[in-house]
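Record type: monomer structure entry
Structure origin: computed from sequence
Chain ID: A
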Amino acid sequence: MFADAHRDVEDESATTTFCIVRHGQTDWNLYQRIQGSTDIPLNATGRAEAAAAAKRLQSRRWDAIVSSPLARAAESARIIAAELGLNDPQIVPALTERHHGAIEGLTFAERQHRFPDGMAVPGLETRRDVVDRVLAALSSLAIGRAGQCVLVLSHGGIIGTLLRHATAGERPRHGESIANGSVHDFRWENDQLLLTHFDATPRTPDDRGDTAASPVR
């Protein structure tokens, strides 16, 4: 009995909690342009969304905050850190958005016109490569912050890819999107990323782009 109790304490201390938050809105989000690694800043709505996310997170304990290097995520992280009294965010390059190559800056309709379904997009990062780099970054954070609760500011494409990985492709379902400022809970346990809460938003008919459910490729 005591051995089991000791093992439970060890398991709990080895588990790192990651709360992954999507950055606030940018003008390209507003006009439904594919951002990818293009460094677009937050707009006023996006800053308000980051502050609103911080208010949702105030009742929980946080040990650290980390962020993608892209301005829209890093500024969201700074807003949240200031609201929660945390130190400045640690920048983690591997948390950057999926590289979309030749379709960055295009609307979904423009993308479909220039690169119809099935046509290769020059410079488009595969979802497998996204999974590999982001999991490696989270693993490193989990080792360095075992037992801690870490806020992670990242992107719709990253969060969607992690959701598909953690649920074997079951989430996001058709009709679910990953809204700006949404908050998603994971834990890192036994060298695996496990989903504990998906903050799904019902998709509107106009939603397109990075947060759409699409297969690993």
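Annotation 1: Confidence is low (pLDDT under 50) at residues 1-10, 208-217.
Annotation 2: The longest strand covers residues 16-22.
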